[in-house]
Each structure stands twice: as C-alpha cells, then as structure tokens.
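One-letter codes give the sequence; backbone shape is given numerically. An example follows:

. . .
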Amino acid sequence: MNMTTKRIIAPAPFALAVALAAPHLAAQPAGYFTAVRPIPGIGNPGQCDFSPIVAPDGLTALYFSDSKLYEASRTSRNAAFGSVRALGANINGSTDGYIPIPGPTLTADGLVLVFPRNPSSSGTYWTQAKLFEARRTSVSEPFGPATPLPDAINQYSCYLPFVSPDGLMLLFTSDRPGGLGDEDIWVATRPSLNAPFGAPVNFNDFFPGSPINSSHEEAAPCLSTDGRTLLFSDLDLSGNSARPGGSGGPDIWVATRPDTDSAFGEPRNLNALGPGSKVNSAQWEGFPFMSRDWPAPGSGLFFVHWSGSGALNTELWEAEWVPAQWWQVAVTPAVAPSARIAPSMVYDSARGVTLVHGGGAEPGSPVKTDTWAWDGRTWKLLTQQGPGEFAAGFAFDPDRGVAVLHGGFGNGSPRPALGATWEWDGQTWAQVATSGGPGVRAGCAMAYDPQSTRVLLQGGSRDLAGNQALSDTWAWDGTSWQEVPSANGPTRVQHQMVYDAKRQVMVLFGGFGPTGTGPVDTWEFDGSQWHQVAASGPSGARQFPILAYDPMRETVILSGGGQYPPYGGNGYKYFDDLWQWDGNAWSEITPAGPRPPALQVGAGAFDSRRGRLVLFGGTPDYEHQTLWRETWEYGLPELRLTGIEPQPNGSLRIQWAGGAPSYQLQSRSTLGAVGWQDLGQPTDQTSAIVPTPAGTGYFRVLQVAGD
C-alpha cells in the first residue's frame, strides 16, 4: 500500500485522515475492571453459551445457547435478566437449510440484526458460515425473514460479526484469501441502511497503519461507539492461543487510538487495562462486547468464559469498567506534613501505609527530619527524629519490612550531598552504613528488586549542580552494599526507577545527564545489565518525575516532573501529564476531570492495597520557591454505597461502587450501637441482598483487599 497517496473514507464517526499519529502517543482509556462475574439471569448450565450483546439502554440482551439465539430483558442495569425467550422461526428456523451459530450483533436502535448461520448438514462449525440480516419495525416486534448479505461478503466463510451503531460499518471474522493468518478481521461499509454492504477490506488496510491482523488468529471484533477502542479475541478453531503475551488460553485483546484520525496501536492483553487475571485467565475468554456508552463510568464488558471443566460449560460473564481518575484529598492542615520539595516517599506494604520523610524547605531553612504515614484517610506523624535530607534515594524492602534511605542533600551553603544509609522499621530510624558502598550522592534512584531480594541504587550526583553525575549501580542486602560491575547504566541525576513485576525488569526514566541535557530515553535492568529500550518517550525531558508500578493494571505509570535552567533551557517548565509504559512504548493517559497542577520535585508512591497512586509535595513555581503540601490520588474512585433497593420478598439489595475487591458489607441497628456486624463473607461483587433488619438499619462497605 502506498501510504502517501491512498486514503480510505469510512462513514462517520470512523472517518480517517492521511496523517497518522505516532503509536506511542496514543491516549489510553485507563481504568479498572471490577465485579467480574457471570451475568445473572441468562445462560443455560451445561450448554454452550456464547456471544452476549446488550442493547444501548442496558435492559435487553441477545446471546446464543443450545443452537438458538435468545433474547432477555431486565428492569434496570442492576437487576438480573429475566423473561428469556428464543427468537422466532425467522431466526432460529431451518427451512432454508441454515441454522444460527454464535455471533449476533445489533444496530443501536435494535431494529437490524446481523448474525452468522451455517448449513444444518455441515459437519464443520465455521468454515461454511454465512452472514444474514433480519429487520423489525420496533423492538417489541419479532424479526422478519433472514436474508443473506451480498456475495461480496458471503463468497467465503464469515462469522462473529459486529455492526457499528449507525449500521453502516460491518466488522467480521473470515479465513478468506488475502489475510495475514488463519483468521483475520475484515471491514465492509455501505452508504445507507437500505444499501448493500460493499466488498470487504482487511482491517489493517481499512485503518492504515493499524497492526491488528497478524499471523495469529484475530476474531470476534467489537468497536467502541467513539471509534477509539477495539476489542477482539485470539480464539482459533482449536481453542488454543499462540499470541505472545496471553494469559494461558485464548484471551481478549485491546487496541486503542487517541482519535479517529489516527491508527490503532499495538494490541495488548485486556488485563493491561484492568486488574491482572481479573478478565483474562489461564482458561479462555472471548467474544467481547462493550456497552454502547463505553468507556463511561459503570459501562460494561460482556464476554464468554470457559472454566475448562467441560466442553459444554461456557458461561456468559460481565465486568464493570471504572475509569481511573485524579482527585485532591481533603486533609486537615494542622495534621499533615508541611510544604516541601523532593521529600522521600514509598509505600510500606508491611503496614499498609504510604511513608513521607524529609524534604527541602524554604531557602536558608533546615531540611526536614520528620516522617509521616498516609493510610488513605489521614496523615499521622510517626517521628520528628529522622535523618535530615532531601532528594535522597528511598525504597521499601518487603522481605525485611524496612524502608531503606541513602544519601540526599543536607544543610549548608551550598547544600552538601550525604553518604549515609538509614533504615526505618516502622518505629525508629537507624543508621546502618556510614562508609563504603555508593558513598556521597543525591538525586539517585532506588527500588527493591524481588529477583535478587535486594534494594538497587543507580546514578545520582556528588554535588547540587549535577556536575559530578554518576552511572554506577549498587545493591543493598540489609548488611552491606555491593556494586554491580556489569551494569553499565546511564549517567543520570534526579531520575526515577521502579520494578515492573509483570515483566520482571527494573524500569528507569527521567533526570538529566552529565552535560545538563535532559534525555527522554527509557532503560531496563535485567538483573545484571542496563539496556536502553526506547530512545523517545513522554513529551519533554524532565527531572524528578513520579514513576510507579500499578499492579492492578500491570503497567508502569509516570506523572509530572519538570525542567529548570540550565537543564531545561531558558525558563522553568512543569508537567501535569500522565503516561504508561507497557514494555514496548509510552502512551499518554488522559483521565477526565481535575488533575494535579503542573509541578516538579514532588514525590509519589503507589498504594497497592487501595489501588491508588499517591502524590505529595513539590512546587508549581520553583523560581519563586512556592512550596506545595497538597495530597492527590489517582486510580480507583473512593468506595461508597450507591443504592438500597427493596426487593419483592422484603429483603434489601445494597449496592456500592469504587475501591478494589474484595469487599465486606457490614451493618448495625443504630449509629450508637457498639461495633459493626459482618453481613456474609468478603466478596468480589458490588451488590448484596440482605434481610430487612429490625428497626432502623445502617450499612457500610469496606475494602478488605491486601497486598
């Protein structure tokens, strides 16, 4: 294909422009999947249940089971489906020798049904499948006769279709000639609902530059209403998956793009968007369908799950999509750390709190020596008697249950770099090394390496100006420091690094080099040596970025940072952006709503118990020494009760949203009653039905997930 001359025009909202955005700049709909569970009220135990789709209002579902297509309805999105009925003879009959197979799809108005059928005498399931269309005048009427799509579509086998909300674009699966693998995704369009679909085009050609189809199997496509998110299965006819990065069996995959003028990026395992192992599992999942309001808060993903317990035991499942967001946490100023720059910050997984220690104060003022803990609701002063420093290396060793701090800048003019190593055990600070090892330095990066069960330190500088930048790598085992002579790391100051648990590598980004330049490259440490894995990254070189690993979405995330003279050129520059690293490329995350101000020399850590990135300190105006003391969090919304619905039998349905599973619902009779009583066991669900309590009842829900 000649990318400079060919332009394909598709019906709105999927029109494409010639100029394609760089794949690493693609914006991602970052969020989390919660309440992953069987869809209540539909499906037949012991049967092959497949391809669930849900109408835009969320109240009507279609699915395939027991060689028929079924329709079900419910009274609200929080209710179970009921009133299940098989579609009429026009759909499920076989007078023309064809019977339906999995894969129905509806237009947004629910009036046009496109679905695959197979010759009833065929011994093969997919290889002779054709696509048919049926219409009705209202959603309360039955569908009319099923008619085959044009020969341009049905010349070869085609199945697992998806029709765009306006009915003008058809995506489907086929093994026809011209594909890149055994099964590919193809696209056909028509100018109006009354016109036939035209000749299909391979997805990669229809959306130029989109690397979706490959030598592996791509099937069951589903496109979001805004045209920016594509889901598909790697389900092949053998029920196996060979696509790299899978979770075991066939999986659901996702590709995104920042707008409809751009190409789709590289497909990623769906678990990269939501909590690991919450949607895709070691068995197999497929036939994805996004609710039409995706990715709005509470929008749903519907899919097929097979537990592996029997050939006829595929189930219809759902997951709720909760977009990640920023919010400023309201704290009591009198009981919170004071404003500061470059404090040390880390998540203490042994005690379930985020630690903040030290930091720089106003010019001429002594550096901070206090240590604080943030539990998600309140700050607590732990001690005033700690090492005085800012811009130190800081990491938490979960095996020994201690936080390790090294170096930093102390008091003086100019402020000297320090060389001591300290540990915090939850009660007191202890100086554990005063000589040898990394020695005097500040602006170094530190993180715990679970592969070697040691804390690693990289780079830093012997002086405040960064003229004595370093490139060495050291390891602390709790007793002594040992240099890693083979590391060959970058010469870097005021950078950050974090361990990527999914890919089992240390990731390094940010800072500046020995000449004051601000590189935007990314490095990874494999246990013995550093490797530059990307020469470009987030827009703008930056010092003191926030780098953290989100174990729920299994990705490295980066927030903010800044440039200042002479390293940032003329004038100061600050960033309020958010990025993620998947091991191949950086992509920008663009959450809706408020965000922290553009700032630098702040600190951050990821609270894995609550699923949130915590930010504190820094400055939005380094030139005038404006210091910052606000607390912000990014991730899952706050856990809260959202509804209480009386049930016909007199019980109550309690609903909640936000937070990370598992949850514990509790009650007590009055606010003055002593203690809360557990209602059932911890659950991953986001609702529960409980008996109506005697008298006035009060309810609350707690997050009980731990590290």
In short: Residues 1-27 have pLDDT under 50 and may be disordered. Helices lie at 89-92, 151-154, 203-206.
